[in-house]
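Example 3.2
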Amino acid sequence: MDRLKAYGAFLVILLALLAILRLVHVAAGITPSTTTPGPLFVNEIGDVEDLVGFVPWVPSYHPVLLGDEPSTILVERSPVPRVTVTWRGDRFASLEESLGKASREAPSDAEPVPGHPSTVYWSRRNRHFVVAPRADLTILIRSDLGQEDVIRMLSTLHPARTRS
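Structure, written as tokens:
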């Protein structure tokens, strides 16, 4: 009879321990991790600053052909914090923003953009590219829109509004 009581106490303790371990396991998945290098997909541009430590720049202007909202916002924390905001509608545009130097160097035939110091522009086939330094960020714009639309997007870049 004593064995049965000991066995019952053992089962109760075991079940309690398993329940506690399960709660810790579920809570760890809910708690945001600051060590995950990414890539992480984000729903809103306002969530980006908490993940990478800088406020991304977005254009005020984007043509209707791109759609109303970005189709993806991708965040990478390692090796260099980087945010890629992409619009995909009938056409596409993406802004890749990273701390420090550009992830892609401009080719030798890149031309300076008038009115934008240190900014260069080039085309390959039907793709247009702009590399634009902003404060401590480097922004790479890629698009299949026309040159005028890409330059206009560049001209309307501003820091995104973040949640307060």
